[in-house]
Amino acid sequence: MLGWVSLLTDAATEAVYPLLPVFITQVLGGPPIALGIVEGAAEATSSALKVFAGRWSDRLGVRKPIVVFGYTLSSLIRPLMAITTGWGHVFAIRVIDRIGKGLRSSPRDAMLAALAPPGERGRVFGYHWAMDHAGAAVGPLLAAVVLYLSPGNYRLLFALTIVPGLLAVATLLRVPDTVPEPQRVRAVDMATAPLGRPLKQYLGILTVFTLGNSSDAFLLLQLSNAGVPLVGLTLLWSGQHALKALITMHAGMLSDRFGRRTLIISGWIVYASVYTGFAVSETRDALIAWFLFYSTYAAAVEGSEKALVADLTPDHLRATAFGWHAAVQGIGALLAGLLFGGLWQLWGAPVAFMTGAALALVAALLLGVSHDLHGGGDH
Questions:
Q1: CA distances from 103 to 47, 53, 100 (A)
Q2: pTM exceeds 0.85 for this model
Q3: What is the pLDDT of residue 351?
Q4: CA–CA separation, 366 vs 91, rounded Å?
Q5: Please, what's the largest Cα pairwise distance for the chain?
Q6: What is the C-alpha separation between 276 and 286, in angstroms, rounded?
Q7: What are 93-112's pLDDT values in tens digits?
Q8: Which sequence spans correspond to the domains of the chain?
Q9: Each residue of 220-265: pLDDT tens digit?
Q10: Is the domain defined by 2-174+195-369 classed in CATH 1.20.1250.20?
Q11: Which of 175, 187, 129 is nearest to 314 (CA)?
Q12: % of the chain exceeding 70 in pLDDT
């Protein structure tokens, strides 16, 4: 049921997200810098709140009520995009939407870890990511259908996102709650305990990787420069999410069998290979092939990472741990975007892509030789 909640929510989000640049600049008349302000503030808010919400959930010993509030907030605020008259309204709606995401993510991941049968955390988190990607693949296609039937009617599309949003909340209400052990009375004290050394070490290694893990927008830009038209980029984006939906759960199951680190290292090596391919390939077909192959990186890493964080953390600290994991990824993405963009502007795309590949390989090497992480999902 949590997987379906994620699919429905992501379908609503991804139906709106690709259209915001055109809506803000052409329909509402906002300046190009408005795009950066809106998305920068939205993602920064989400990343910061994941840490707060995770710690709050552990301190209170509460999971489901926070998750329900987060999903409900996003589901109700998103359709209001239909009545906006200026880009400032879009700014407020996007920030509130991301507040909902920031509040719900860490406690929800802790619920998933608690609900997972023994020895199947990789499969559970892989399945959840697969449903997330299925929603991300379906959302743009549904948006295309609505806009085909009613050309240019963005506001109708935005209003219709209330349907999957409410379905997501209704599904979530049926999910059983999970109360972290120790029970709530002791959770306040226990949640103040420090996170363990193995988790901190993993987050340190992850920081190295995230510095080279720039926005996928740069991959799309390189594809566009190679001659892929706008409609082609949309189809490739949807297709990549469809591939992830098909294979992410299976990769999570492999992490249950062969160990988390094995899958994460493999994924980071795939990432380095794809970025190297984007640095040296010159033909459109080659870049398209690398872009589709990029799906295997996400499939190998996403579920395995979440399962590893759960493996390395006691139940009463899991929401806090997932919050810090999300914060490292969010802050790293911001720094990676600045680094990648600067390198591209100064020395060109090949240098930027090779730098990302090098950082991924360094992170894979560090994870491979890390003794503290032996046993974290490695069987």
A1: 10, 5, 5
A2: no
A3: 93
A4: 40
A5: 62
A6: 12
A7: 988 998 999 999 889 988 99
A8: 2-174+195-369
A9: 778 888 888 767 777 887 888 888 888 888 888 888 888 888 899 9
A10: yes
A11: 187
A12: 91
Burial 336-375 (b: 16+ CB within 10 A, else e): bbebbeebbeeeebbebbbbbbebbbbbbebbeebeebee
Q: How many helices (H) and strands (E) does the chain have?
A: 16, 0
Q: Give the C-alpha separation, 74 to 210, whole Å.
A: 27
182 cis-preceded (ω within 30 degrees of 0):
yes
Cα gap 303→122, rounded to integer Å: 6
Where helices occur in 312-348 by DSSP H, the ranges are 318-347
What backbone phi and psi angles, to 5 degrees, belong to 151? -55, 130
Average pLDDT over residues 158-176: 94
Tell me the residue length of the chain.
Answer: 379
Q: How far is the C-alpha of 336 from the C-alpha of 202, rounded, in Å?
A: 18
Residue reference for tokens 């995401």: 101
Q: How many of the other CB atoms lie within 10 Å of CB of 80? A: 18
pLDDT of residue 259: 83
Structure-token pair, residue 24: 């803000």
DSSP secondary structure, 86-99, as one string: SHHHHHHHHHHHHH
Q: Which of 198, 234, 167, 213 is nearest to 17 (CA)?
A: 234
Q: Which of 137-141, 146-150, 191-195, 232-236 has the lowest mean pLDDT?
A: 191-195
Q: For residues 18-27, give the mean pLDDT.
A: 77
334 — phi, psi (to 5°)?
A: -65, -50
Asked if 22 and 147 touch (Cβ cutoff 8 Å), the reply is: no
User: What pLDDT sits at residue 187?
Assistant: 45
The predicted structure's pLDDT at residue 184: 45
**Are residues 243 and 134 in contact, defined by beta-carbon separation less than 8 angstroms?**
no
Distance CA 15, CA 44 (A): 21
